[in-house]
Amino acid sequence: MRKQGMQGSLVAALDVGSSKFCCFIARMDDAGPRIIGIGHQVSRGVRGGLINDIETASQAILSTVHAAEEMAGETVSEVVVNLSAGFAASRIVKAEIALNGREATNADLRRVLNQGYTLKEPADRQVIHSIPVGFSIDGSRGIRDPRGMFGQRLGVNMNVVAANSGPVRNLASAIGRCHLEIAALVVSPYSAGLATLVPDETGLGVTVIDMGGGTTGISVFFDHNMVFTDVVPVGGIHVTNDIARGLSTPVIHAERMKTLYGSAVASPADERETITVPPIGEEEEGDASQIRKSLLVGIIAPRLEETFEFVRNSLEASGFDKIAGRRVVLTGGAAQLPGTRELAGLILDKQVRIGRPSPIAGLAEATCGPAFATSAGLVKFALSESAEPLRQGRAFAEEPGGLFGRFGIWVREHF
After folding, report:
1. I need a labelling partner for 141 at 20 to 30 A (CA). Which of 13, 149, 229, 305 fits?
2. Mean pLDDT across the chain, nearest whole number?
3. How far apart are CA 216 and CA 396, in angstroms?
4. How large is the greatest C-alpha to C-alpha distance in the chain, in angstroms?
């Protein structure tokens, strides 16, 4: 995926989610990337963003990728994949080197960045991202480009995202069974931000909330870098299960009611509108009951309120709530429920918009909504220079942390 010779090359992006699997195959041409293959299907073998049945998940992945290959008329050997869960809140780690009063040079920048990239995690954790978010000289922070400056010590702050090794290896195993390699691994809220944000938002500060099926991802962007990310274990599937339990109806009907009649905010008309609810185990239509829509909204709203309270607590605990400003971009399939934007604005006390992937040539209308933000973001990540993983000839299993850790927007912009 190097920039040199990029024209005509293929990139495959694979979104392994709790509600769906999706694969985009893109080709780079003179006008930029073009989507030439799309495959997606209902998720299998994944729960809460983590693989819980490797064999079932690998079969579903194979089917998804094969559908995209059939449409593209091409075969892929590696994929850029998302990680939806299994990672802790990111943290800022500082690395420093001595300048001894010299002028900072390109070699010094590479040396301090290399030191940041090689920071070790415990044996049971794997570095997913290690992103330079700011430099300092002799403790003076906020320096974007220290080259040409003089001082005693040059430092860099790295935003480090680390995941438990088990979930990462399970994902790699499921993909490996499909005879595919992982070209890069990207946490879902980072990918969603790459797809939906505009430059002014990433520069001034913004929070991305990626509402998936099994999890809700959070990422904060500031000064054109991702400075924080976290995940909360609540998503759209939890809302569906609440409806199924609360109304004693099959999950498939609960999902249908949520999609057709659901809302996160109550309205006066809800008391007058009725919904047919088929009970579990009853096949006769006459056995269905009628409920007011207000009852359905009363089940949905508390779960979404809880989700946004989790998000608010995570941002406040991280200290990045103020840095993110008052701008929130809400994306992901679960964000499409009517009233979700208004509820998020009320609980978070911020300005909220629904984020859709920025246009990519060849992207079908059915796959350009918020539910496909992660997939589109994976394509954008793969086509950037920052996705080059510096493998140095070593395989994934032999290089814990190194294969996925060496990305950085700052590096892409300056080298």
Report:
1. 229
2. 86
3. 27
4. 85
